[in-house]
Design a protein that fits this description.
Helix content is 44%, strand content 15%. The protein is of the alpha/beta class. It has one domain (8-240): Aldolase class I (TIM Barrel, Alpha-Beta Barrel). Strand 1, helix 1 (19-33) and strand 2 form a beta-alpha-beta unit. It binds phosphoenolpyruvate. Residues 12, 14, 170, 175-176, 214-217, 235-239 line the site of phosphoenolpyruvate.
Amino acid sequence: MGPGRKPVLAGNWKMFKTGAEAAAFARELRPRVSMIHDAEIVVCPPFTALSAALQALTGSNVQVGAQDVYWEAEGAFTGEVSAPMLKEAGCRWVIVGHSERRQLFGETDEAVARKAAAALGAGLSPIVCVGETLAEREAARTLDVVGRQIRTGLGGLSEEQMAGLVVAYEPVWAIGTGKVATPTQAEEVHQAIRSLVREIHGAPAAGALRILYGGSVKAGNVAELMSQPDVDGALVGGASLSAESFAAIVRWRG
Ligand code: PEP
């Protein structure tokens, strides 16, 4: 974790939890994290549970985000949800370019760029996900792939827009597999992302950018990851589904 960067601990629930389950989760989580003021805490339920989660978290230090967004504000785009709609619903954050969206739903780097810009335009903070597959890592292409994702996804944004987003480095081979990147592997890519952002957007934007790690983060490995200078938080899938385990991650300082 670097100086001056407030950590972000975000839970990606994926396609889990109904509204009733989200409200129950919120009631369990609130007292477990109410003492944490030196980190931003975010949960990202499915669209249908956003309202229940928001209601149950009103007045708490836990913020709510969506898992995806479409770049048009409104129109004939059946099944999609826009950034102004998420903002009006009470969301502060939105995940963009998660590897499951890229792999299962054909999301491209160009789509990620449009979604990130639309989210920022509506006053949401995008969590822009990047990361290599196992085959790409084994072919020593990690930095090329992540570099391309960052250049295309964020290259067109202004320095001011960069201040409103966070990046999540999520190696695809570590997501939902129990195989976590070593702190050294994570730090190497986080450093490369920060250098690239410095090159594109300048030193102040790079220095302020929060880069989260994601991929099998648990209470038992989060502290070691967070001890790396360029790891500024975590995007958590499986371990964010239980209030107890997510709270333990949020309270990684002990
Ligand atoms: C994720 O879905 O973003 C993720 C990192 O999942 P998990 O923590 O389960 O690997």
